[in-house]
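Record 1 of the preview.
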Amino acid sequence: MSPSANTATADVRSIGEIIKDTRNLTADQVEQILAHQRDHGVRFGEAAIALGYATNDDVLLALSEQFSYPYASEERRRLSPELVALNEPFGQKAEAIRAMRSQILQRIQVDGQADLRQRRAIAVVSASPGDGKTYLCANLAVTFAQLGKRTLVVDCDLRGPRMHEVFAVDNDHGLSGLLTRRRPGQPGKAGIGAIKKVDGVPNLFVLPVGIQPPNPLELIEGTWFDGLLAELTNRFDQVIVDTPASSYGADAPVIASRCGLAVVVARKNVARMLEVQELVQVLANASAKTAGVVMNEF
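->
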């Protein structure tokens, strides 16, 4: 059965009004839908689909508007096909990512109270490229934004940045410029122009890399990065940080140690167990708490 309107009369009318406006339905068409709804005992959205006056996407968009739950438009799905939590919010992949979000939230409780630093800064790391780290990082951020949390994705993969592509945002200014003080002012003021709002997703923002630097590790190890991260965690409810694969160098453990919390990603039937175990140990040595290891099956 296709997702559709709520059964309560007020909600049905609300859904009907949204679909009516979206599809520019006439009064006669609305009456036909209501008659089909009464005769067949179905919901307004199902009746509209059955009569060809609406599509499943129309109903999902109406539901997302009614419940303030972001759902991607056709244009957004074309620009950002990897964002399954936004493009297919009722699908199996999105549900799995939401389950990860719930487990992460449970694991960052300290003595029953949230550790503010760890709650707000999560580094997503992997041993090897191609494990799906960026994919998980981006979709995890979407699910936090769907909770109503003001969420920022920081692309700290200064060796192979992709977040600007995933979210279809400009990459003219970004993290590298802030870390090299190319933009004037303090971190908070400088970051305003570099941080991009994600269209169609309330509460979600991206800080892309910008110009790819020749000295990524030196920039991450500098005190400027600590100051910037502190500023960002104060301005946002949740900060999710993408990192380079640990096989490229020490960037990921250094970033994870600054964030305080790490999620390790490994691809099923590809990642080597020994490499994953070594990465978890390196993170522990760097004083980064590991929230868990995610086995990517996709």
